[in-house]
Structures are given as C-alpha cells and as structure tokens.
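Quick one before lunch.
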Amino acid sequence: MSDFTIPKFRLPGFVAALGQKLPQWPHGLALIAGLNAALKLKLLPESELTALEDKRFRVQVLDTGGTAHFTYRGGLFRPVFRPEHEPDLAFAANLSAYLQLLSRQEDPDTLFFKRELEITGDTELGLIVKNMLDAVEWPALPKFLLLSR
Amino acid sequence: MSSLPDLVCPAGSLPALKAAVDNGADAVYLGYKNDTNARNFAGLNFDAKTMSEGIRYAHAKGREVLMAINTFAQAGRVADWQKAIDGAVDQGVDAIILADIGLLDYARQRHPQQRLHLSVQGSATSYEAINFCQREFGIQRTVLPRVLTLAQVEHVIKNTSVEIEVFGFGSLCVMNEGRCWLSSYACGESPNTVGACSPAKYVKWDKKPGAMETRLNGILIDRFGDDEPAGYPTLCKGRFEVQGETYYALEEPTSLNVLSILPEIIKIGVRAIKVEGRQRSPTYVTQVTRSLRAALDALKDGGERYHVKPAWQAELAKVSEGSQATLGAYSRPWR
Ligand code: SF4
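Model of the iron/sulfur cluster complex:
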C-alpha cells in the first residue's frame, strides 16, 4: 500500500469546459498506450481478453472534460476516432476517483455505491473489466510508467 | 476469555489473497473460475495456476486456505463438482467448504483425510442439523447463516462440538440464505444453480436525467436519485410498491458489521469470523482485513477496555453497501 493518499477532489467547472475544446485524442492515446504496455507485460489474463474482442469502450473524465473511445481488436487496444454508436461499456467519473481506483486506494464497488463512478452499458462486460484490473499484479509503478510511454 | 477466533477473509483474485494475508487474515477462502462456487462472476476467481501460487503464498506465511465448492451439483454434471473436490485435495487446501449433501458424502468417502466445512449455503441453523452433518460426513466446522440472534448462536455452540464460524462483515444476503430463489424468479438463475445471484448479464444500469434505474432482466428493481447511494442489483434489495407505498420492502442495502459486539462473539466461543466479499477488489480486502485484525488484536489480552476505534468504524463504513451498517439478526428483538 502506498503511504500517500489521494484526496477526493473535483476540478473546477472551467477545466471541463476547456477540456472539451481540446482535441480528444492525446490523453486517450496515453491511456491506450498504457493498456497496450500492460498487454505486452502479459499482465492481463488471456481468457478474459477474448471477451473484450471488438467491444467499444468509453472512458469519460467528468471534471477534465476528457473522453477516450477505444476498442480491443487482434490483441491490441486501438483508439476509435469517430465513434458512430454508443459504446458497449462506458465509465464516467472525476479524475480523483480514477486515480484512487488505479492506485488501489479505493474499491470500485465503494465508488459505485457512493455514486462517484458510473458504469453504463453491458454490465457483464463491466464486471469482466473490473475483475480483470483487480486481478492484475501491477509491477512497481515507476517501471510500468516508463514502459508505457 | 477464550482464544481469538480465526479471521477468514475473501479472495476473488491473487492480489486480493495476498492483501488478505499481508493484512492479517488467519485464513482466506477462494473458489474456482466456474459454477462450483457461489461467487461465479465473470473475470473472478482462480484457475489451477493462480490457485497453487496463492496456496503457496498463504502457506509460506502460515495461513490457511479454504476452498469454497459451495453450489449444488446440477443434474447430469455431478462429475464437474467431484472433479473440483479432487482438484482441491490435490492442491493441498486446508479445508473444503461444501453445501451439497451428496458432495459432502463424496468427499467423505473419497478423501477421508480431508478437512470439511459446511457452507452457509448448506443452511444449517440448528445444532441437530449440524450434528447430523458431523456424524454422517465428519464436518469439522460450519458457517452459520446470518439469520440467528447472538443468543441462538450461543445455544448452537453449547450443543455441538463442531466449530462455529459466523459472518463478521459484508453485504447481507437476507433471510433464506442457501434457499433463496428470488434471483431465479427474475432471470431463471440463482446462487444455488449457477453460482451467482442476479448474474451481470441480466443487469442494466440505466442513466436517466436526475436518476439511475436498475433493471434485472427488464424488471425495474430500483431507482436512485443522483445523490442517493446505490446497492447491489439483487431483488431482495430492490424498492417495490407495496400497498401504495414504495420502499425497500425486503431489505435495505446495508452491510453487516459486528465490531461493536466482537467481545460477546468471542465470549460465546465462536471459532472463526468470516468476511463476505469475494466479488470485491484487493483494496476492499485490505481495508476490511486491516480493521478487523486491529479490533481482534485489541481483544487479545482479555480486552476489558475494548472499545470500537472510530478509525476502524470509518474504514468499514466507507466500503459498506449503501454506506450503512447493521448488526443484522445478531441483535434482532424478534425471532
Ligand atoms: S436475492 Fe438477496 S437474499 Fe436472495 S440470494 Fe440474492 S442476495 Fe441473497
């Protein structure tokens, strides 16, 4: 467990307004690069990955106004630049909730019960993704970040 | 004062298992990635490889591994469940948690040396039922359903030599534990048949302006305002209209939390305290295990001055379903 804690915070509204005006792909690409790095390290279990094939995902950061659309196909996560229909699975939360989740400081169900994390779409797919991320044994973070660049 | 009960924590994944062990669980319980266990959710649980790694990890630190094979063998597929039992024995688990009488019999005959526990899904609430399972199948421990008052638990303990395990924390599955078919009523699948209550493929969270609706196989079971806490999408925790009023007609979404009665639980001779939640993340396991470990350790030397620390209570309240906690049946005035 890390010894620093990430507080619950919400960025001011103008950040979101600004975020929506920026091109949507840079942070989206960073996310996808991170996921692909995890793939390369074989951190994600094969059996569950097959369930993601061709599914469309949307990750929305409410208080930055950022949205990433991506899909998983042929062993890689790929960005979707012009999403034509609703994604199969969509997450929406403030930045702090995502950070708390990724650092394993908060539990996804807790955030969900508290309505700080919203999951819509195919619930079973959502559960697969959630459980898949829970089952990952993250290597020491710095190394992982380096690789994902 | 009797010795401390074992703290038995859930492991839905390898990181969760390690979190339980590292934060002071005496034992972890887990299951295979299939319908032989009652938390058969997509992406959860162990395959043979992660299981042996988990067992190695726990055993290296002197902790026990309990294997839940706690669903009922389905017609025509009994061999799958028997294979799971054989596999658990091969893996060297410390005990197998079973509910199905046929499987208890199989395990007893085939692996007479293997330690067996009766699952909460076996729904044994009286010492007669428990002693029957001891006589017939040699069970050494039973997990009591969350329906008994503390006095009733004590009565059971006085009348059996089987070890008693009770729930200490977690989401409530009410009333008819091990016998509940509510989920089947809505979607044709229940814990005892497919190993999951309200399987995810039937669940739909619908975002509407100002509210979120929960549907189970198309049936509207709840609607949350934007600042209302949510709960699991099970029928028992839905809000229904009964005689013109809409409310939680069966159960409120809350979690059981026994911190405040821990000294009594120990005094009456409970052998193990179980934490619910194999479907939850390693973070939850860390938080709950850490708090209960601290509470139990505070009771180690008599614990006359035991009082519930706000920090434990806060940590447990945070991860609770509906962010509320209850003593459940333990302190129920009616029976
Ligand atoms: S409907 Fe409720 S009481 Fe019945 S099995 Fe599901 S969680 Fe338990």
